[in-house]
Amino acid sequence: MPKITFIENDGTEHVVEAEVGLSVMEAAVRNMVPGIDADCGGACACATCHVYVDEAWRDKTGKPEAMEESMLDFAYEPKENSRLSCQITVSEALDGLVVRLPEFQG
Amino acid sequence: MTERIVIIGAGQAGAQAAASLRQEGFAGAVALIGAEAHPPYQRPPLSKAYLQGALARDRLWLRPAAFYEKENIALRLGARVARIDRAARRVALDTGEALAYDRLLIATGAPPRRLACPGADLAGVAYLRGIDDSDALRPLLAGARRLVVVGAGYIGLEVAAVARKAGLAVTAVEAAERALKRVAGPPVSAWFEALHRAHGVELRFGETVAAFEGRGRVEAAVLASGEAIACDAVLVAIGAAPETGLAAAAGLPVDDGIVVDETARTEDPAVWAAGDCANFPSPLYGRRMRLESVPNAIEQAKAAAANMAGRRTVYDAVPWFWSDQYDAKLQTAGIGAGADEIVERGAPGAKARAAWYLREGRLIAVDALNDIPAFAVGKRLIAAKARPSPKTLADPDADLKSLLT
User: Which residues of A touch B64 (CB under 8 A)?
Assistant: First the structure.
């Protein structure tokens, strides 16, 4: 299974094995990574699964669609590399993905 | 001695409270009692992706099994509470087992209202609340050609959308004169009525079902007017009623929900309630309310857990809701009831629309259809009790962010 590294705001790293086909958000929740709240459960309605995608991975994770981009616009401290992790699907191509968590969600 | 917290109800509120108690540093015993056999799960997909078969069951679980082990949360599934003995601070299960508590959280939710008309117990007449209901509804829809949905609220309309996508003929029968009347203003009702009509749903307003007819299985819904609508499946989705039986039997005040204060505590200092079953005073709106929504369950449970762990916290979040139907996303912030002015943003027929609800100039709610800026800005303005210019709110080209400064 592809490995994904989540790095908390304080630098704590969590390397998890992620099932292909799930979202990156679900991979975090299933592996008890703190800081991914995902209040709406992946409906792209709440912006509480916000992550910053490592620069090296931005091409492979792709760009947010219009609704997601709009949600991100109102997330806590959005940046160029912001994504909602519920909108990124785990694939073999994402083996090694690194994402960082913001200080707060919502 | 180790302190013991018991949580009755393993839905969104109960599960959140258990997790939040640990985050708050509560080190005592936590028991989470669920009547269903399933671990805590998300309900919203049950009328959407899960019902369509587009989401596997294990993707509904709110947390992995390992979470409850790691956090030392005793998950008691398939367990029914028979009564609460407040004098002895004990919860009795229907098996006869008793669980002692120092503090108790009631998070029993709100099951669907039942229809009591003749024929309501015929095969093919369904309700939707839990996984088992959705699992039963999916094959019912797959084997049916004509669905009658009783009630044009969120769940009725969401299931209507799923059924239309699956090719069923769908008639929705609603007692009120418009869809979503209990939760939205007239413009929003009109958007969703147009959306469903465009997808081929027949909407019947001002009509109630007097009986269901059929030989063993439902074959028709008979309206109060006498008209019979032929069907081979029925979903009754006429709202939910708070599950207050245990609280009332234990002598706790109940008035459209278990009555709690702004810290989610009941009049018994050892008992709290949160989520769909709780009737709470909203500081933001200056009145009591009871909400049926995931965000309310999560946020009120967080507040209850903080208070139960000894950190005083007032529950004062802006309520919000969402619904997905066909390719439309509705996001609502605030409560629009009591508005004296509704301002619409977006041209008629536009994909993105919003309705702003004002009371004496103050923004109290927004319904946003495919309009995330309206939702996000609206939520913040509502929290700030702001009085935005109706002219700006109405202008689809306005930069709503300018209202936040």
Answer: 29-32
Q: What is the ipTM metric for this complex?
A: 0.92
Q: Chain B residue with minimal CA distance to A39?
A: B295
The nearest alpha carbon in chain B to A70 belongs to: B372
Q: Which of B44, B321, B290 is nearest to B180 (CA)?
A: B321
pLDDT of residue B347: 87
Q: What is the pTM of this model?
A: 0.96
Q: Answer yes or no: are the C-beta atoms of B306 and B20 closer than 8 Å.
A: yes
Q: Domain B327-404, what architecture?
A: 2-Layer Sandwich (3.30)
Distance from CA of A16 to the nearest CA of B (A): 14
CA distance B373 to chain A (A): 7
Q: Given an 8 Å threshold on Cβ–Cβ distance, is B70 in contact with A26? A: no
Structural fold of domain A3-100: Ubiquitin-like (UB roll) (3.10.20)
Nearest residue in chain B measured CA to CA from A71: B372
CATH 3.30.390.30 intervals, chain B: 327-404
Average pLDDT, stretch A62-70? Answer: 92
Q: Which fold has domain B125-236?
A: FAD/NAD(P)-binding domain (3.50.50)
The rounded distance, in Å, linking the Cα atoms of B138 and B53 is 8
CATH number for the domain whose boundaries are B4-111+241-308: 3.50.50.60
Q: Are B63 and B75 in contact (CB under 8 A)?
A: no
